[in-house]
User: Fold this.
Amino acid sequence: MNFPSIHSMLYGIGVSFKRYTPAIILAVIGVTAALMLTYREFYNSEYLYRVIMCATLGLPLFIAIRLYCEKSETSSTVLIIYYSIALALLVAYFFTLPGKPALVPMVRFSLLLIGMHLLVSFSPFTSKNEFNGFWQFNKTLFLRFLTSALFSVVLFAGLSLAILAIDILFAAHIDGRIYFRLWIVIAGLFNTWFFLSGIPGNIKELQHIVAFPKGLKIFTQYILIPLVSIYMVILYAYSIKILITWNFPNGWVSYLVLFFSGAGIFSLLLIYPAREMEGNNWIKMVSKWFYIVLVPMLVLLAIAIWKRIDEYGVTENRYFIIALNIWLALISLYFIISKTKSIKIIPITLCILAFITSFGPWGAFSISHNSQFRQLEKTLTEAKVLVNGKLHKAPDNITYAQKHKIVSIVNYLDRSDALELMKPWISQNMDSLFSKDASGWVDKQGKILNLMGIDKWDNDYNYQEPAKDDSMRFNYFAPVLNVYNVKDYDYYFSFTKYAYYRNADSESPEEIKRDVSFYTLEKGDSLGVYFNRKNMSLDIVRNERHLISIDITAVQNKINAFLKVYSANGQHDTFSPEIMMLTNENDAIKISIYFSEIGGFKGKNKISKINNLNAAILVKLKDVRKKQTK
Assistant:
């Protein structure tokens, strides 16, 4: 890689501005909008977010138009017409965006951005053949991208250190946001401008260049392809395991297959011209067999994603996995049976895929929303929450699995701004239902679930499903005291434990030992607190000697007694510190525990599982007192 001189850099920057004027203007607009967002006055400006997104999309679009017109030698008038159409599309896109970033618009924006960048990769090579020119062009873009990134990082690091030195040495009290603003300017403007200055000027000549970087061949031959081979062996071994055990693959294998496929295709693209060079027959062999070897992996991918869809329906992630699976199958079929084997088909078809999946009734969002809505309708009907097309309170016999699925889908529809699909089920007007509170925020999914009498926290994936007779999730709270009466106690400390993922029946002595929270006392003495989830108790140890156990479930007895007197329906979750306090003592220790939170599952007024605890603990060690009096 030859590093350019200062003179050539400045000359290239000037030429690139003349060549890509609209693109650079969009970069300036986008950077300006991003800088404005860092100031308090513009934090919530909905227009600035739209401007940034449109400028980011317009940048590669205008570059692609310029490259296409240069290669096809169109007139300036035609170029201006293309620019005008592109600008009109960006303006139209601007008005489709919401005021603030949301899930669906951001995913759609990402798809369009991927498509725009892929458009740049082949826009100058729309005619047949020119495979070498296409490869040389994209090789130059790839290396220029790496160079631009390196220069940008070094420039940012150097200037940041200079600012830091001024701030420290001269006590300048520089606003810390200056570093982020500096990065915006360097990444958005310098990096873009420097990258554009390295795009080849005469694209037609690239077809006749036969140079192939030796380092690229070494990188691909000795790093990328061996890595792809390792993944291939792993996946084929996993396939054999499936055939032996006859257990369907889990969802995670989908990402492994996609990574294997992507890395393999990328490797073959990197060494494409080298296959015609002397001594590189192995490249042709790898290129020939890779797509054949890929076919069984695609079958594995199809089985894995089918299993998830059959159980949970389609989401955007699963939709994209399906789309990529189909694309990989068609690409593999093309390279297996085609005589031409044009590498241009890869970015062209990927670009089309990115665009067509981003919108329309066939797009990722419409299909995913409708699939999840059907899943919700089926579950609500089975649980007798949806009766005669209207929502009702959930019956007492609704299962935890049903609640979990209902909350999960409602949460998904809320994040995707698709709760309107539920409008026919709700008797109340949705505008009034979703009225904002005093802070201007509205908990849409919470209000929808409240109509069903379901707690939105039942979607917590950390919790294991309890037994059928213990399906009620609970969280008890008490106010955290500002002052504790420590008279007659030696020590005070706080204790917090979350044990969502652990299985109490499978704990080994080593796991228990690691899970003890130790508190250092005087002269190397220590006190340990262990949350025994199997017995639902707190075990206190001193220098690894057990002192006492506190049965946490005793809190439920105090709560039951309170609810008998003060509540007919028992729908409390916050209690006084006295009710949430437990005290016990023996010859070695006196202990009082003030629980500010206890969470888990319970059956009929009896705790069956505890998942999380927060407590303040007061301890008196009686043998310590005796030693002191002596």
